[in-house]
């Protein structure tokens, strides 16, 4: 998952490739955390488009399971 909200079309490919290079080198646990954060960012963007008059909320800090 990669959220490209706010990214100009001309920058999307470069941003995607950079993210892939970085994430391929990451440990599985790190990748899981990045994926969770990207999914949260995608969900917030979709909700903001569905309910544009709702004030934004501050995102929660992602913590590993069991902490």
Task: Describe the fold and architecture.
The chain has 67 residues and is mainly alpha-helical. The protein has a domain at 27-52. The protein has 2 helices and no strands. The relative contact order is 0.14.
What is the C-alpha radius of gyration, as a whole number of Å?
14 Å
Provide the helix percentage.
55-70%
Note the run of SSEs as H and E.
HH
Relative strand content: under 5%
Structural class assignment: mainly alpha
Coarse morphology: flat
Number of E strands: 0
- Alpha-carbon distance between the termini? 24 Å
Low-confidence blocks of residues: none
Largest sheet: none
Mean pLDDT reading: 84
- Count of helical stretches: 2
Index terms:
67 residues; 0% strand; mainly alpha
Short description:
This protein is mainly alpha-helical and 67 residues long. The protein has helices at residues 9-24, 28-50. The protein has a domain at 27-52.
Can you lay out the helices and strands and say which pair or pack?
Layout: H1 9-24, H2 28-50
